Amino acid sequence: MLAALWAEPRPDRPPARVWRDWAVVAVLVTSSFVEMLLRDDRAWAPLVLSVSLVVAACLLWRRTSPLAAVAVAFGALLAFDIARIVAVDATGLQSIAGVLVLPYALLRWGAGREGALGLGIILIWLPVTLVVDPTSPAERVAGYGFFLFSAALGAAVRYRTSSRVREIEQVRLRQRNELARELHDTVGHRVSAIAVQAQAGRALSAADPVRALATLVTIEEEASRTLKEMRALVGVLRDGTDADLAPRRGLADIERLARPGGEVLGVRVQVSGDVEAVDPAVSTALYMIAAEAVTNATRHASGATHVTVDVTASGRQVRLRVRDDGEASTASPTPAGYGLRGMAERASLLGGTLRAGPDPDSGWSVDASLPLTVRAS
Fold first, then answer.
1. Domain containing 35: what range?
2. What angle do CA 302, 308, 311 make, to 5 degrees?
3. What does the pLDDT read at residue 233?
4. Which residues contact 129 (CB under 8 A, 6 or more apart)?
5. CATH of the domain at 334
6. Mean pLDDT, to the nearest integer, of 275-280?
7. Cβ pair 69, 108 in contact under 8 A
8. Residues 174-205 pLDDT 10s
9. Given 85, 115, 134, which residue is the final one in a domain?
10. Which part of the chain is the Signal transduction histidine kinase subgroup 3 dimerisation and phosphoacceptor domain (predicted)?
């Protein structure tokens, strides 16, 4: 833990000087001049004033160079206090109290090793100055308490800010993952369907021009829907609205995945049970999982001739099974594919489970089980 604290880097982008910094320094400098004029001992006034001005100037660099500011300010105070012990018969300026800001800045903006070294310098100066100005035990404790509280406050503000930054980054990462999943499952599926239809149209162009023309119409419709969904995604990214990322689809749309065999892989769809009772969010997730599984089978199922999609709603669960009859050893997508990851995430977010892998009989199967309804959180 100590090693981690020592290696802690500086916070990113410390704020630059603003007018308030100059105002604080101006107040400290002005009060130093006023206090010097009201002092009875004028002999060492220039020296005392110089130390006060050095401390005030260090406040301007307390964020960008916190260790240097602490070292210069408290080094000047330490040298002045040692001089008071040895030769100088003068009291300090009360306006130097502005130095209390530096421990806060040190722990707020400094790196871990800078904080440790800076606190060491402060803890060296404190007993010296308490020796120069005799105080009671209670005043000594209060003196240490003031500076340690200032440092602790800086560390607390830094920790709270860092926690907030981490929370924001986690939210952004979650949003990026959601957008990536929607982009892959909606637009990616549409583009895959367009590619499959284009392959079929090319195969039919010479032998059956009429069917080839029908295929072109299907490609046009798919392209229009893809463009609509892409615009919806772009609208969310640009405007930051809370609208759905894409038009909602559900179990009723799963039947549209069916297609006869022939030039492309055939898909058979069967839906049974009380599908009307399925929650809309679950229904949409089932469609996305089924569409992605069919797309994966089309791309990766070697030797497959058809895909079966079975949806069964019973009791409190709705089950989806997508299976192809390809070769089990080569039917799987790549292990790190976004499709499998997205399907698993969709099922998990709704409290369900998903298994994808070689089927014991042959081919590749995707089995998902989701609750019929989603509990409100």
1. 2-134
2. 140
3. 65
4. 77, 78, 81, 92, 143
5. 3.30.565.10
6. 85
7. no
8. 777 777 766 666 666 667 667 766 777 777 67
9. 134
10. 176-240
